[in-house]
TrEMBL record:
<feature type="transmembrane region" description="Helical">
    <location>
        <begin position="119"/>
        <end position="144"/>
    </location>
</feature>
<feature type="transmembrane region" description="Helical">
    <location>
        <begin position="88"/>
        <end position="112"/>
    </location>
</feature>
<dbReference type="GO" id="GO:0055085">
    <property type="term" value="P:transmembrane transport"/>
</dbReference>
<dbReference type="InterPro" id="IPR001902">
    <property type="entry name" value="SLC26A/SulP_fam"/>
</dbReference>
<dbReference type="GO" id="GO:0016020">
    <property type="term" value="C:membrane"/>
</dbReference>
<keyword id="KW-0472">Membrane</keyword>
<feature type="transmembrane region" description="Helical">
    <location>
        <begin position="379"/>
        <end position="403"/>
    </location>
</feature>
<dbReference type="InterPro" id="IPR011547">
    <property type="entry name" value="SLC26A/SulP_dom"/>
</dbReference>
<feature type="transmembrane region" description="Helical">
    <location>
        <begin position="48"/>
        <end position="68"/>
    </location>
</feature>
<feature type="transmembrane region" description="Helical">
    <location>
        <begin position="21"/>
        <end position="41"/>
    </location>
</feature>
<feature type="transmembrane region" description="Helical">
    <location>
        <begin position="329"/>
        <end position="359"/>
    </location>
</feature>
<feature type="transmembrane region" description="Helical">
    <location>
        <begin position="172"/>
        <end position="189"/>
    </location>
</feature>
<dbReference type="Pfam" id="PF00916">
    <property type="entry name" value="Sulfate_transp"/>
</dbReference>
<feature type="transmembrane region" description="Helical">
    <location>
        <begin position="290"/>
        <end position="308"/>
    </location>
</feature>
<feature type="domain" description="SLC26A/SulP transporter">
    <location>
        <begin position="17"/>
        <end position="384"/>
    </location>
</feature>
<feature type="transmembrane region" description="Helical">
    <location>
        <begin position="246"/>
        <end position="270"/>
    </location>
</feature>
<keyword id="KW-1133">Transmembrane helix</keyword>
Length: 502
């Protein structure tokens, strides 16, 4: 594959336009069900998901950064958006996304985009796994046309009761059948390579489920439809005044951190799929920020770069950023001319799409090898995911980051003590050389090894072999040496005074 500008950076020609045009149609077909599904799962009108997809194509798609990755509403932010909407209302969503976008613009301008590559991969995978678990748990209720509890734990603990309710309701069983059928199509459709080339799996699954629902007039919930203009809710004065609340600030920071990390990790993944120009991370962060600022001004969902759409764009043969811009045009045309088409889509089939997307967020294949090779990283992944399920997105990520920092600090503070002269004459000092990185984390080990030295011998402590020594460790070692040698000196003086003359 080639990046922007065609092969070897040559200007776009007829062949390049044809490839971008075809790729844009493929990405559009993938994006429609995902935009609508993410919006419904987030507890907002379906049109807001389409608006975010349109902005991702027409605004972010025009800006420099990464030429081939595609932005829009992402399953990775669904849980956080749902929590924010439940806490502050749909009207407050605009200001949350707007400020997050402005923060991304500022971070990109300050050159902080590349620093997101320093975030522990285990934390990112744990974050996505936690999102996937909560997303699956919540969408199981939508799969049965039932209302989901608010917290992640309640969703999980409420599943047995949900199963009982479904078993006693024919309408719920019908909805579940639609949702499960959607998941089966998503899993099996890619195996039919000819069909998958013509129609992407998400669109095929939604289309088949919708046709079955309409043909048999099945009694299941459908997507509620508003006009595109009616769905736009720019932030007002009341929403701006909420900015002073601590919870709102935490939500904004969570939006910013997760959206930025997911976009830049997606950019790194997309770069591995083609041999065109590499991503400029700072410019890409600013492009994402500009898109989120526009989405916030329109009261729409937050956006990130989405690996599903981006990989579809690359594999469909896209050459330049024109493909993602055109996909935004097709979304706009669809939302303006065919909004009523959304009203026949069953909610259960969108739930099935998101259950499948949530499962793909969980690194099931990587977890066991990671446990065997890097157990500490696997523990961080599991704890981060569990913390997100038990608490919320922001607190779970913070816990994961703190664990990652603590693990790194522990692993890098390797220290070794080299003891010489232990077997020399008693009047000769023991020479102790400390090597490595001496921090407070290793101080108990250091003091234990020093305490094991003979108490009656003078100790000469050499710290010149340390690459790093923190203040606490330096003071503790100096104090121990001074006290140890003082005791030895006092004992020798006492022995000398008590000797009987010959």
């Amino acid at each position: 594959m080639r990046g922007a500008g065609g092969a070897a950076g040559s200007p776009p020609g007829a062949g390049t336009f044809r490839a971008d045009f075809t790729a844009s149609l493929v990405v559009f077909l993938v994006a429609v069900p995902l935009c609508v599904g993410v919006a419904v799962a987030s507890g907002v009108p379906a049109e807001l998901g389409l608006i975010t997809g349109i902005v991702g194509g027409l605004v972010t798609g025009l800006l420099p950064g990464s030429s081939l990755q595609v932005s829009g509403p992402a399953a990775g932010l669904t849980v956080l958006v749902y929590e924010a909407v439940q806490e502050y209302g749909v009207a407050a969503l605009g200001v949350l996304v707007l400020v997050s976008g402005l923060l991304q613009l500022a971070m990109g301008a300050l050159g902080l985009g590349r620093w997101f590559r320093a975030i522990s991969l285990a934390v990112v995978q744990g974050m996505l796994a936690g999102i996937g678990l909560v997303l699956i748990a919540g969408q199981l209720y939508a799969l049965a046309d039932a209302k989901a509890p608010s917290s992640g734990l309640d969703k999980i603990f409420g599943i047995p009761e949900l199963i009982g309710d479904v078993a006693g309701s024919s309408n719920s069983l019908t909805a579940v059948a639609i949702g499960v059928g959607t998941i089966l199509v998503l899993v099996l459709w890619p195996r039919f390579r000819q069909g998958a080339k013509v129609l992407p799996a998400p669109l095929a699954a939604v289309a088949l489920a919708t046709i079955a629902t309409v043909s048999f007039d099945l009694p299941v919930a459908r997507v509620e439809v508003k006009g595109l203009l009616e769905a736009i809710q720019p932030p007002g004065v009341d929403q701006i005044t909420q900015m002073a609340e601590v919870g709102v600030i935490g939500t904004i920071l969570a939006f910013t951190l997760i959206a930025s990390a997911e976009s830049l990790f997606s950019a790194a993944a997309v770069d591995r799929l083609h041999d065109g120009p590499r991503t400029d991370y700072d410019k890409e962060l600013m492009a994402q920020g500009a898109g989120n600022a526009v989405c916030g001004a329109l009261g729409a969902l937050p956006m990130t770069a989405v690996i599903v759409r981006s990989s579809a764009n690359v594999f469909a043969g896209a050459k330049t950023k024109l493909s993602r811009i055109l996909h935004g045009v097709w979304l706009l045309v669809f939302a303006v001319l065919f909004p009523s088409a959304l009203g026949i889509i069953p909610v259960a089939t969108l739930a099935g799409v998101l259950v499948h997307a949530g499962w793909k967020l969980i690194p099931t294949k990587e977890l066991l090898p990671l446990w065997r090779e890097r157990r500490g990283e696997a523990i961080i992944l599991i704890v981060t995911a569990g913390a997100i399920v038990i608490t919320n997105m922001f607190e779970g990520v913070i816990i994961g980051l703190l664990m990652s920092v603590a693990k790194t600090a522990w692993e890098t503070s390797h220290v070794h003590i080299d003891v010489k002269g232990r077997d020399d004459a008693e009047d000769q000092p023991i020479k102790v050389r400390v090597l490595g990185n001496a921090t407070f984390l290793r101080l108990p080990k250091l003091l234990d090894e020093l305490e094991a030295l003979p108490r009656e011998r003078v100790v000469e402590l050499d710290l010149r072999g340390l690459r790093h020594v923190d203040h606490a460790c330096e003071m503790a070692l100096a104090t121990w040496t001074e006290r140890h040698n003082a005791v030895v000196s006092h004992a020798e003086t006492t022995d000398e005074d008590t000797k009987v003359p010959a």
